[in-house]
Amino acid sequence: MMLTTLSDALLIMKGILVAVTAALSVQAAQVAFHFSQADIDSGAALASLSKTAYDNAMSRLGKNGCTKETVRVRKEWRKMTVDERIAYRKAIECLMEQKSLYNSTIAPGARTLWDDFGVLHYLQTPMTHYSATFLLWHRYFNQVLEDNMRDKCGYKGVVSYWEWGLDCGNVDQSPLFDGSESSLGSNGEYIGAHRSVAGFGAQGGTGGGCLKAGPFANYTVNIGPVGSAHPLAYNPRCIKRDLNAQICAKWVSLRNTTDPILNSKNVEIFQAVLQADGRYAEARNLGMAVHGGGHYTISGDPGGDFYFSPLEPGFYLHHGGIDRMHFIWQNLDWENRQTIAGTRTMYNQPPSANATLDDVQDMAPLGGQKTLRELMDTVGGTPFCYVYE
């Protein structure tokens, strides 16, 4: 082919330059997320990924009403000041004193606004676990909690998160559960060994009974458990915990947290490996995986109850950790990770249509209605304006 003009030659050279630049960019992206096993196990890899995701999310601020002045930064529990942790705990206690919004015909046992979070989760669990809505529904659920803490109790902070892997050596001494005034209460009274947990062969933890000390030691769980004849009937009892370092180390270590972020090629696989969804080969041998592992590191009643676990104050820190993983994974490749996958029912039972981004998530009576599309971006402005540190 003969070049007829100088401009033709320049256009061809420009095309070659663009192609080479694109190839180098792909190569750089592939290299950027290669970490040694030591860095993955120590948390250094996760810290690097988290920083990249944070920077990428912050670079999008200002496009949808979420700005550098208004964005809220969600921190890991131990990075909050003592005063911030106490304020968070007091806001939870405040919700426990507010009157329930549910009609007594729907939830006759609900007494408080805190109970209502358990009722809502119980009613929607068949649609929001092992389904397309798992990640975004729980993202919104945590935001609805924060909104109620602010609107009803004057809370000025944010919902925190728990990095489970930092506490796997001794969960009892975690600043989240050490029984201090800046914690969410202690472990439960020890009730003996030889207790299996959740059918996974794990042994019981170091508690099992009513909370020994600290915040929520006198809290009354009013509804549940899910296996009772009438789960939403009034059933007052103490809150129990059974903190379990064995489960923590096996299923929610820093490696467990990092691997799904590095190795999940799409949201379908990402949510499958988080939940150990046995329909997928990649998730078939993961036991409890991160989602179940975090719940059963706390265990107890209601913490170990699949349906009523939001009545455990640690639930929201755990799901903050899940949302943080999703936030990081999304923001490492934002343009390609604004998607959902799956149907509208748990394990597609009963069989249901594939969910779409226009599907509405209804948090009444605690919050409003939002489409899944509106829940995709934590810096989208409405209803979210937050990042994870």
Automatic annotation (TrEMBL):
UniProt keyword Signal, yes or no? yes
Matching entries from Pfam families are given as: Tyrosinase
- Keywords assigned by UniProt, alphabetized: Metal-binding, Signal
What are the residue boundaries of the Tyrosinase copper-binding domain, all occurrences included? 113-331
Q: Where is the signal peptide?
A: 1-28
The record ties this protein, via InterPro entries, to: Di-copper_centre_dom_sf, Tyrosinase/Hemocyanin, Tyrosinase_Cu-bd
Q: Does the keyword Metal-binding apply?
A: yes
* Name of the protein in question: Tyrosinase copper-binding domain-containing protein
Q: Which organism is it from?
A: Phialemonium thermophilum
